[in-house]
Amino acid sequence: MGTPAFPNLGKHCSVSDCKLIDFLPFTCDRCNQVYCLEHRSYIKHNCTKPNKNDVTVVICPLCAKGVRLIPDQDPNITWENHVNAECDPSNYEKATKKKKCPAPGCREVLVFSNTIKCRDCMVDHCLKHRFGPAHKCPGPKKLETSFSFMSLMNRSRKEEPKPNLTSASSSKWSSGLYNVASSILASAEAGISKLSGETNQSQQTTRNGTGQSSGSGHRNGLVEQCPQCGAKFSSVTTLVDHVQKVHERSGNRSSGAKKVTIDACPKCSRGFVDPVALVEHVEREHGGSSRA
């Protein structure tokens, strides 16, 4: 059998009356025997298991379920196993009930060839009632395509809080959002007020040549006092204006003589001819307060 180069090439036919050497043998998928071209079919070689891979299903008359018959098993045994374990007579009416057209007054049975599904209500109808006006179609369902944040907030306020995780997380999220918005608003207002105060202070400093008193005496509610007449003022600027208008002009009107040192520092007793120089001295040396 075979050739010197391929000694295993070819096999004998399994039929006892043939025994032909076939170099392209056929293996039966039922009995797994080797046959030649002439005896390859089940009938030619009288196959012992011709129904090994066949699938046979019998409909049960009690439950309308399909029962598969096992090739190597007696059909009576298969049927008895189904009746004792799987058979349910209550399923017969459900399985055998035919689906009919739901249109009012229509009794036509729906099968594969006459069933059309409505594109709006998504319900199967017969060919006669396939259009919407024929079966009184309610129309497509309206789906909410947009998300409304305000409607969600109003709905959460109207509904009573429930002790579950979803409501707790949503309320926590809402409170956190409110706190963040409040902090941002407070920071913006503080920044605006601070910027406005700095702007006013810089404008006042540029106009008068000196800034308002920011020493400890002004913070404690103390006022500036004129060293000549003892008049009190709320700021150094008003004190300078008072000295220039009252004392300096009155001195010029009383006598045309040369000015003498009449202004003394109430703290260090240093004399000054010009009241402005005295005020600058008080701001620079004594912290902006002329009170002794």
Automatic annotation (TrEMBL):
Residues 196-221 are annotated as: Disordered. Pfam families: zf-AN1 (PF01428), zf-C2H2_4 (PF13894), zf-C2H2_ZFAND2 (PF25403). Residues 7-55, 95-145 form the AN1-type domain. Residues 196-217 have a biased composition (Polar residues). InterPro entries: AN1-like_Znf, Znf-C2H2_ZFAND2A/B, Znf_AN1, Znf_C2H2_type. Keywords: Metal-binding, Repeat, Zinc, Zinc-finger. PROSITE patterns: ZF_AN1, ZINC_FINGER_C2H2_1, ZINC_FINGER_C2H2_2. May be involved in environmental stress response. This is AAA ATPase. The lineage of its organism: Eukaryota, Viridiplantae, Streptophyta, Embryophyta, Tracheophyta. The gene is SAP11.
